[in-house]
Amino acid sequence: MPLSEKVSASLEIQNLSEQVMYHPEKFAHKLLIDREEQKTLLFAFSKGQGLKTHTTPKPALLVMLEGVCNFKVNGITQLLIAGEVITIPANVPHSLTAATDFKMILIK
């Protein structure tokens, strides 16, 4: 059996974007990994939804899967688009607002 068939037979391949759907009344999220040392969450925000200014006790990594959001950190707003990644330092106030429907992964 070729290696690619062995890998496919032993691993379940998943499409992350299909695991959460957009909801007009509130953002959706799904916990992907929940360990003491790491949490990984998948989010779907409809246009206009967001997260108010907050901090996290540990650094986090935000990975944009699709769409566009306005991400504000240290008083500076920047546009994040699908495929981009940004590191969020610990204890630094940040917020985000969906410029379009968008999905992201947050690793903290």
From TrEMBL:
Q: Which superkingdom heads the taxonomic lineage of this protein's source?
A: Bacteria
Where does the Cupin type-2 domain start and stop, copy by copy? 43-105
Write down what this protein is called: Cupin domain-containing protein
Give the transmembrane region(s).
none
Question: Could you tell me which species this protein originates from?
Answer: Rufibacter roseus
* Pfam families given in the database record: Cupin_2
